[in-house]
Design a protein that fits this description.
With 158 residues, the protein is α+β, with helices and mostly antiparallel strands. The relative contact order is 0.20. 35% of the residues lie in helices and 19% in strands.
Length: 158
């Protein structure tokens, strides 16, 4: 899949009776652990404006989008590298992306993990492609707060 293909596709409208209200009333389901780990990787590299969209009931393309941004090519690549490292390293996980697009230019890096897709944008590309508007039918999920190191989380500073 090339970078341009996703931006040209239209979101599939929800099936009859499958509205945001119905999805919310079914109870908030926790985010998949691998998606949370991808969020942690992006947070570790200071990704900006992280947003998660639940696409279940909107499209069969994937279940979630993680959208974030970096300030330059090197930061975008570092975010991508950290997410990939975190998802493949633990023996229990060993998860690799099905595909990665746009890494060399790093204006828009797309990492396809099947049940979720990570989009890492430069500021200009994020404004241009405006996935948040394109997929506005999707329910936005709360981004889990960044985990602080134990010595900072406890409030004690040495």
């Amino acid at each position: 899949m090339s970078e341009g293909n996703l931006s040209s596709s239209s979101p599939i409208p929800p099936a009859d009776g499958d509205t945001d209200a119905n999805l919310e009333s079914a109870g908030a389901t926790p985010l998949p652990p691998d998606l949370i780990e991808a969020v942690r990787g992006a947070q570790a590299k200071q990704a900006e404006d992280l947003r998660i969209f639940d696409l279940r009931g909107v499209t069969s393309l994937t279940e979630y989008f993680l959208i974030c941004g970096g300030t330059n090519q090197r930061q975008n690549q570092a975010i991508s590298d950290e997410i990939e490292r975190r998802l493949k390293e633990p023996e229990s996980r060993k998860r690799l992306p099905l595909g990665v697009e746009g890494y060399d230019k790093a204006d828009w890096i797309l990492m396809d993990y099947g049940d979720f897709i990570v989009h890492i944008f430069s500021g200009q590309a994020r404004k241009y492609y405006d996935l948040e508007r394109l997929w506005r039918q999707a329910k936005e999920c709360a981004v889990p707060p960044e985990e602080l190191p134990a010595h900072l989380a406890s409030g004690s500073v040495s």
